[in-house]
Amino acid sequence: MSTSALRPTDRPKSADEDRAHVKTRRERPRPQVAKPFGPLKNVHDLRQVAIVVLYLGLLGTMFFVPAARTIPCLLFACWLSFLNSVVIHNSLHAGPFKANFANEVWRLLLSFGSLYPASANIPSHNLVHHHFDDDGQEDWAAPEHVRFDWHLLNLLHFPNVAGPRTFNGVTRWSKLLGRGEFRGQYVREQIFAFGLTGVLLAIDFWTALFFIVIPQLWGARGILRINLIQHDGCDVTSEWNHSRNFVGRAFNWVMCNNGLHTIHHNRAGLHWSALQEWHDAEAVQRIDPSLNEPSMVLYLAKTYFLRFSRPKMRAVALAEANVESADLASREVRRAEVEAAGTSA
Amino acid sequence: MLGPVPYPVLGYLCLAIVWCAALLCALASVSYARTLAARFRSLAKVRTGTVLAGEGEGGALALHAIDQLGRAMDGEPPAIVFSDKTYRGEVFGGTIDANGSTVTITGKGSLEVWPDAATQTTSATLDGDAELDALYKDARSSKGAARTVSVPFTKGKKVWFVAEGEALVFLSAIEPRAFLSARVRAHLAFAVVELAICGALTYVATRAPAFGVVSTIGGAGLLAFFLSVQPVGVAVEEASREPFRRFLRGVHKRSAPFPGGVVPGRTTSRVESG
Prior knowledge:
The complex is a heterodimer.
Chain A: H1 19-27, H2 45-64, H3 71-93, H4 100-114, H5 121-128, H6 151-174, H7 180-203, H8 205-231, E1 245-246, H9 249-254, H10 261-266, H11 275-283, E2 292-293, H12 296-305, H13 318-321, H14 331-340
Parallel strand pairs in A: 1-2
Chain B: H1 7-42, E1 47-54, E2 62-72, E3 79-91, E4 94-98, E5 101-105, E6 109-110, E7 113-114, H2 117-124, H3 128-140, E8 145-153, E9 158-164, E10 167-172, H4 176-205, H5 213-239, E11 251-253
Parallel strand pairs in B: 7-10
Antiparallel strand pairs in B: 1-4, 1-9, 2-3, 2-8, 3-6, 3-11, 4-5, 9-10
Helix pairs in contact in B: 1-4, 1-5, 4-5
């Protein structure tokens, strides 16, 4: 059964169950009531659609309307581009549309928005990053790839090393048996993203560079940086303390709950709209408090801007040692499930 | 502030972004070179010798091994691509002839061992189609086909080593200081060359008239530079991995399609047309 339709609180309760059993049952996935909306599988995905429509509309406006080429519009576009990458992440875990064709078109638009083929997320994020180096493959976006003493330089440099490693890895992975459908999808997205950007550059190089390419790259490089921000100093060998969470409610509303990273890693099939309640039900009690940050802005300030050294790793995994195990399949099983699920979202 | 932003301001912003990336790549390369140089200095006491005897399997003094995972590739002829999982080295004890004096090694355990690329590649080569066929069924599955590529250090092998008493602390089949110094030079060269290219393109991009044809060519060049300097930097770094953890990987192809179209691991045979 897919965990994409689960709800931690919808459970039958039995007075006969013993205490431990109740605890296990509480965390067992239960079917979630689907909330479709028109062509969307889930009404919450309207938020994602709105983000992308707003972003692409803003790019088009800046390109075609000189009066819109302002600093505020450019900064807003960069921010929306980052959210476009967040939507890529969510959409490649679960396509938001009921129709495959609509999801394919959606991925093309998203690929243009961040100037990389959205399907790259399937191997690089869903398969490799979600399971770190469990398969022997080093995580292409592991924090250890940057090694400056001054941590701010690591934040700035991280996309320069994680990006190429990711695309090299995706290329190797795409040649494996049974990846033909993925390769076609990947190539189509590249042609659309790079082709349309190339056309815009050919029409008006400087306008396209300033008002299309800068936002695109800001989002693409920003989502790579999130790997450093959310995993540096964590224990990726642990079950629950491999990720840093940003738990602000307003932040997570805008970010489509992407601040809740631990539960997303452990239950990757969950729809993003369900992450908050699962985070509260399963993750909070097992995560070292230092990995639940109230604000990303404050975290960035204290970690990268107000210090010149890289924070030392703490024994964060101790937090889960004394808490009862969750009803969670092993990483190996979870990885096999993702592999078996196929290569298209 | 709220009106259209002048293009020269954005041009300088782009220049700052490109130079930031270029300087970071150069700095990372120099930093890596410093790490390699420190390793170079730490191997000042390296000695040369020849393995006389070993207490490991087949008379091996030591062993370097890579655990690999093979997965079937698409296309014909059938092929398996391997990825590296873990790198390890082990010393078993034995003796080394170091220019006439015999060094006895008694300690056993894990050790940083550097194999030579040629021997490693030879060891990794599959012995014909039969060996590939034996791995192919697992290679088609999600768990993959596991194998270990071992390079033993046996009698007669020329080695570079560092020993403390009777304990071996480093062993190599190649001259380690030459390897390290070459990689240090490669990193420094990358840093200098990429900054020089960035400087040259900046010169072109800032030629008057601003945003004219020449300036635009320079801008396009800087965009291409920005996108390409990063993978080149990563390639230089990956080529500098010490032989202990050098990528072996590898693709092994069958000489021809499976006889009769019968694919190992499939429950039904594939019928070739014609």
